[in-house]
Design brief:
Length: about 280
Protein backbone atom coordinates (compact mmCIF):
# COMPACT_ATOMS: atom_id res chain seq x y z
CA UNK A 1 0.00 0.00 0.00
CA UNK A 2 2.75 2.36 1.01
CA UNK A 3 4.66 1.76 -2.22
CA UNK A 4 1.52 2.32 -4.28
CA UNK A 5 0.81 5.60 -2.49
CA UNK A 6 4.36 6.82 -3.06
CA UNK A 7 4.09 5.90 -6.75
CA UNK A 8 0.87 7.87 -7.13
CA UNK A 9 2.40 10.82 -5.31
CA UNK A 10 5.46 10.71 -7.56
CA UNK A 11 3.27 10.49 -10.66
CA UNK A 12 1.19 13.41 -9.45
CA UNK A 13 4.29 15.50 -8.82
CA UNK A 14 5.64 14.65 -12.29
CA UNK A 15 2.33 15.59 -13.89
CA UNK A 16 2.30 18.87 -11.96
CA UNK A 17 5.84 19.73 -13.08
CA UNK A 18 4.97 18.85 -16.67
CA UNK A 19 1.88 21.05 -16.59
CA UNK A 20 3.89 23.86 -15.00
CA UNK A 21 6.55 23.55 -17.70
CA UNK A 22 4.02 23.51 -20.57
CA UNK A 23 2.30 26.57 -19.10
CA UNK A 24 5.63 28.34 -18.83
CA UNK A 25 6.46 27.33 -22.41
CA UNK A 26 3.20 28.85 -23.66
CA UNK A 27 3.96 32.05 -21.77
CA UNK A 28 7.42 32.00 -23.31
CA UNK A 29 6.02 31.89 -26.84
CA UNK A 30 3.66 34.74 -26.01
CA UNK A 31 6.51 36.69 -24.41
CA UNK A 32 8.76 36.21 -27.45
CA UNK A 33 6.07 37.67 -29.69
CA UNK A 34 5.07 40.45 -27.31
CA UNK A 35 8.52 41.73 -26.45
CA UNK A 36 10.30 41.20 -29.78
CA UNK A 37 7.58 42.27 -32.21
CA UNK A 38 8.58 45.98 -32.21
CA UNK A 39 12.09 45.00 -33.34
CA UNK A 40 10.78 42.48 -35.86
CA UNK A 41 8.85 45.34 -37.49
CA UNK A 42 11.77 47.81 -37.54
CA UNK A 43 13.54 48.48 -40.84
CA UNK A 44 16.94 49.08 -39.23
CA UNK A 45 16.87 45.62 -37.66
CA UNK A 46 16.09 44.07 -41.05
CA UNK A 47 19.05 45.84 -42.64
CA UNK A 48 21.40 44.95 -39.77
CA UNK A 49 20.65 41.29 -40.23
CA UNK A 50 22.49 41.53 -43.56
CA UNK A 51 24.95 44.38 -42.98
CA UNK A 52 26.02 43.88 -39.35
CA UNK A 53 29.66 42.92 -38.87
CA UNK A 54 29.71 39.12 -38.47
CA UNK A 55 32.18 39.17 -35.58
CA UNK A 56 30.00 41.58 -33.63
CA UNK A 57 26.89 39.54 -34.42
CA UNK A 58 28.63 36.33 -33.33
CA UNK A 59 29.80 38.02 -30.12
CA UNK A 60 26.25 39.18 -29.38
CA UNK A 61 24.94 35.65 -29.91
CA UNK A 62 27.64 34.14 -27.68
CA UNK A 63 26.99 36.65 -24.88
CA UNK A 64 23.27 35.96 -25.11
CA UNK A 65 23.74 32.37 -23.90
CA UNK A 66 25.01 33.17 -20.36
CA UNK A 67 22.56 36.07 -20.29
CA UNK A 68 19.63 33.71 -20.90
CA UNK A 69 20.98 31.21 -18.36
CA UNK A 70 21.13 33.96 -15.74
CA UNK A 71 17.57 35.06 -16.51
CA UNK A 72 16.39 31.44 -16.45
CA UNK A 73 17.89 31.08 -12.98
CA UNK A 74 15.61 33.87 -11.83
CA UNK A 75 12.50 33.34 -13.96
CA UNK A 76 12.64 30.19 -16.08
CA UNK A 77 9.73 28.28 -17.56
CA UNK A 78 9.33 26.52 -14.21
CA UNK A 79 10.97 26.68 -10.81
CA UNK A 80 14.41 25.16 -11.22
CA UNK A 81 16.62 23.44 -8.68
CA UNK A 82 19.89 23.16 -10.61
CA UNK A 83 21.96 24.99 -13.20
CA UNK A 84 21.33 22.10 -15.59
CA UNK A 85 17.64 23.00 -15.61
CA UNK A 86 18.53 26.68 -16.02
CA UNK A 87 20.65 25.84 -19.07
CA UNK A 88 17.79 23.74 -20.45
CA UNK A 89 15.34 26.63 -20.03
CA UNK A 90 17.80 29.05 -21.63
CA UNK A 91 18.26 26.80 -24.67
CA UNK A 92 14.50 26.35 -24.99
CA UNK A 93 14.06 30.14 -24.84
CA UNK A 94 16.70 30.56 -27.55
CA UNK A 95 14.92 27.98 -29.71
CA UNK A 96 11.60 29.78 -29.19
CA UNK A 97 13.26 33.04 -30.17
CA UNK A 98 14.65 31.51 -33.37
CA UNK A 99 11.35 29.90 -34.37
CA UNK A 100 9.24 32.95 -33.50
CA UNK A 101 11.58 35.26 -35.41
CA UNK A 102 11.63 33.00 -38.47
CA UNK A 103 7.83 32.76 -38.41
CA UNK A 104 7.22 36.51 -38.11
CA UNK A 105 9.86 37.50 -40.67
CA UNK A 106 8.44 34.96 -43.11
CA UNK A 107 4.92 36.20 -42.45
CA UNK A 108 6.02 39.75 -43.33
CA UNK A 109 7.75 38.44 -46.50
CA UNK A 110 11.14 39.51 -45.18
CA UNK A 111 12.37 35.95 -45.63
CA UNK A 112 11.66 34.31 -48.97
CA UNK A 113 13.19 31.47 -51.00
CA UNK A 114 15.14 34.16 -52.87
CA UNK A 115 16.71 35.53 -49.65
CA UNK A 116 20.48 35.02 -49.58
CA UNK A 117 21.89 32.66 -46.97
CA UNK A 118 23.79 35.47 -45.23
CA UNK A 119 20.71 37.66 -45.05
CA UNK A 120 18.49 34.75 -43.97
CA UNK A 121 20.72 33.61 -41.11
CA UNK A 122 21.65 37.14 -40.05
CA UNK A 123 18.08 38.36 -39.71
CA UNK A 124 16.96 35.35 -37.71
CA UNK A 125 20.06 35.33 -35.51
CA UNK A 126 19.75 39.02 -34.66
CA UNK A 127 16.01 38.89 -33.98
CA UNK A 128 16.39 35.72 -31.90
CA UNK A 129 18.29 37.65 -29.21
CA UNK A 130 15.42 39.92 -28.03
CA UNK A 131 12.89 37.17 -28.80
CA UNK A 132 14.78 34.72 -26.58
CA UNK A 133 14.93 37.25 -23.76
CA UNK A 134 11.23 37.96 -24.27
CA UNK A 135 10.47 34.25 -24.04
CA UNK A 136 11.93 34.12 -20.55
CA UNK A 137 10.45 37.45 -19.49
CA UNK A 138 7.06 36.12 -20.54
CA UNK A 139 6.85 33.99 -17.41
CA UNK A 140 7.41 37.00 -15.16
CA UNK A 141 5.10 39.36 -17.03
CA UNK A 142 2.37 36.97 -18.13
CA UNK A 143 2.37 34.63 -15.14
CA UNK A 144 -0.74 34.46 -13.02
CA UNK A 145 0.46 32.01 -10.40
CA UNK A 146 0.89 33.43 -6.90
CA UNK A 147 4.22 31.66 -6.62
CA UNK A 148 5.64 33.51 -9.61
CA UNK A 149 6.30 36.59 -7.52
CA UNK A 150 8.21 34.58 -4.95
CA UNK A 151 11.11 33.40 -7.07
CA UNK A 152 14.42 34.12 -5.35
CA UNK A 153 12.94 36.75 -2.99
CA UNK A 154 16.27 37.33 -1.29
CA UNK A 155 18.42 37.74 -4.37
CA UNK A 156 21.88 39.09 -3.80
CA UNK A 157 23.40 42.37 -4.83
CA UNK A 158 25.06 40.85 -7.88
CA UNK A 159 21.76 39.38 -9.06
CA UNK A 160 20.12 42.80 -8.73
CA UNK A 161 22.80 44.42 -10.89
CA UNK A 162 22.58 41.58 -13.42
CA UNK A 163 18.84 42.02 -13.88
CA UNK A 164 19.35 45.77 -14.25
CA UNK A 165 21.78 45.03 -17.09
CA UNK A 166 19.15 42.76 -18.68
CA UNK A 167 16.55 45.53 -18.49
CA UNK A 168 18.93 48.06 -20.00
CA UNK A 169 19.95 45.69 -22.79
CA UNK A 170 16.39 44.78 -23.70
CA UNK A 171 15.27 48.39 -24.08
CA UNK A 172 18.50 49.42 -25.80
CA UNK A 173 18.06 46.71 -28.41
CA UNK A 174 14.93 48.60 -29.48
CA UNK A 175 16.65 51.98 -29.67
CA UNK A 176 20.30 51.44 -30.62
CA UNK A 177 19.72 50.38 -34.26
CA UNK A 178 17.77 53.54 -35.08
CA UNK A 179 19.25 56.65 -36.70
CA UNK A 180 17.38 58.83 -34.21
CA UNK A 181 19.87 58.07 -31.43
CA UNK A 182 22.69 59.56 -33.51
CA UNK A 183 20.56 62.48 -34.73
CA UNK A 184 19.53 63.43 -31.19
CA UNK A 185 23.12 63.29 -29.97
CA UNK A 186 24.25 65.64 -32.76
CA UNK A 187 21.54 68.15 -31.92
CA UNK A 188 22.34 68.20 -28.20
CA UNK A 189 24.78 70.55 -26.50
CA UNK A 190 26.97 69.51 -23.54
CA UNK A 191 24.42 71.19 -21.26
CA UNK A 192 21.67 69.05 -22.74
CA UNK A 193 23.85 65.98 -22.16
CA UNK A 194 24.44 66.96 -18.52
CA UNK A 195 20.72 67.51 -18.01
CA UNK A 196 20.02 64.10 -19.57
CA UNK A 197 22.44 62.44 -17.14
CA UNK A 198 20.82 64.11 -14.14
CA UNK A 199 17.31 63.32 -15.37
CA UNK A 200 18.26 59.70 -16.09
CA UNK A 201 19.52 59.22 -12.55
CA UNK A 202 16.54 60.98 -10.97
CA UNK A 203 14.00 59.04 -13.02
CA UNK A 204 15.80 55.78 -12.36
CA UNK A 205 15.87 56.42 -8.61
CA UNK A 206 12.24 57.58 -8.53
CA UNK A 207 11.02 54.54 -10.47
CA UNK A 208 12.28 52.16 -7.82
CA UNK A 209 12.19 54.07 -4.57
CA UNK A 210 9.97 57.11 -4.72
CA UNK A 211 7.02 56.15 -6.93
CA UNK A 212 4.65 53.58 -5.48
CA UNK A 213 4.92 51.07 -8.30
CA UNK A 214 4.20 47.41 -7.70
CA UNK A 215 7.52 45.80 -6.86
CA UNK A 216 9.10 49.07 -5.73
CA UNK A 217 11.70 48.93 -2.98
CA UNK A 218 10.84 50.79 0.19
CA UNK A 219 13.68 52.65 1.86
CA UNK A 220 12.28 52.14 5.38
CA UNK A 221 15.05 53.26 7.77
CA UNK A 222 17.74 53.33 5.09
CA UNK A 223 18.91 56.84 4.09
CA UNK A 224 18.06 57.83 0.55
CA UNK A 225 21.69 58.53 -0.28
CA UNK A 226 22.59 54.93 0.61
CA UNK A 227 20.17 53.53 -1.97
CA UNK A 228 21.36 56.11 -4.49
CA UNK A 229 25.00 55.09 -4.10
CA UNK A 230 24.39 51.35 -3.74
CA UNK A 231 21.84 50.78 -6.51
CA UNK A 232 20.92 53.81 -8.62
CA UNK A 233 24.38 55.09 -9.54
CA UNK A 234 25.85 51.61 -10.25
CA UNK A 235 22.70 50.84 -12.21
CA UNK A 236 23.17 53.96 -14.31
CA UNK A 237 26.80 53.10 -14.99
CA UNK A 238 25.66 49.64 -16.10
CA UNK A 239 23.05 51.24 -18.37
CA UNK A 240 25.76 53.42 -19.95
CA UNK A 241 28.09 50.45 -20.50
CA UNK A 242 25.28 48.42 -22.06
CA UNK A 243 24.39 51.42 -24.25
CA UNK A 244 28.00 51.76 -25.39
CA UNK A 245 28.16 48.07 -26.24
CA UNK A 246 24.90 48.17 -28.21
CA UNK A 247 25.99 51.20 -30.21
CA UNK A 248 29.33 49.54 -30.98
CA UNK A 249 27.67 46.23 -31.92
CA UNK A 250 25.35 47.91 -34.42
CA UNK A 251 28.15 50.02 -35.91
CA UNK A 252 26.73 53.33 -34.72
CA UNK A 253 30.11 54.47 -33.39
CA UNK A 254 32.19 53.55 -36.44
CA UNK A 255 34.18 56.56 -37.53
CA UNK A 256 32.84 58.71 -34.69
CA UNK A 257 35.11 60.71 -32.40
CA UNK A 258 35.18 60.37 -28.63
CA UNK A 259 32.76 63.24 -28.00
CA UNK A 260 30.05 62.12 -30.47
CA UNK A 261 30.38 58.58 -29.08
CA UNK A 262 29.97 59.89 -25.53
CA UNK A 263 26.94 61.97 -26.49
CA UNK A 264 25.31 59.01 -28.24
CA UNK A 265 25.95 56.81 -25.21
CA UNK A 266 24.35 59.37 -22.91
CA UNK A 267 21.29 59.62 -25.19
CA UNK A 268 20.84 55.85 -25.35
CA UNK A 269 21.61 55.63 -21.63
CA UNK A 270 18.33 57.43 -20.87
CA UNK A 271 16.05 54.60 -22.06
CA UNK A 272 18.67 52.15 -20.80
CA UNK A 273 18.37 53.59 -17.29
CA UNK A 274 14.59 53.30 -17.42
CA UNK A 275 14.90 49.70 -18.59
CA UNK A 276 17.32 48.93 -15.76
CA UNK A 277 14.97 50.45 -13.18
CA UNK A 278 11.98 48.63 -14.64
CA UNK A 279 13.87 45.34 -14.41
CA UNK A 280 14.22 45.79 -10.65
CA UNK A 281 10.49 46.34 -10.41
CA UNK A 282 9.20 43.46 -12.50
CA UNK A 283 11.87 40.74 -12.40
Amino acid sequence: MGGSGETRAAAGETAFRTTDFVTGLARGIAGALLFALPMQMTMEMWDLGFAMDRFRLALLLVLTVPLLIGIAHRIGFEKTVSWREDIRDAMIAYAIGILASAMILTLFKLLTPETSEQDFLGKIALQAVPAGIGALLGRSQLGADPDDAEDDPHSGYGAELFMMAVGALFLNLNMAPTEEMILISYKMTPWHALATIVLSILVMHAFVYAVSFKGGHELEDTPGWHALIRFTLPGYVIALLVSLYCLWSFGRLDGAGSMPALMSTIVLGFPGAIGAAAARLIL
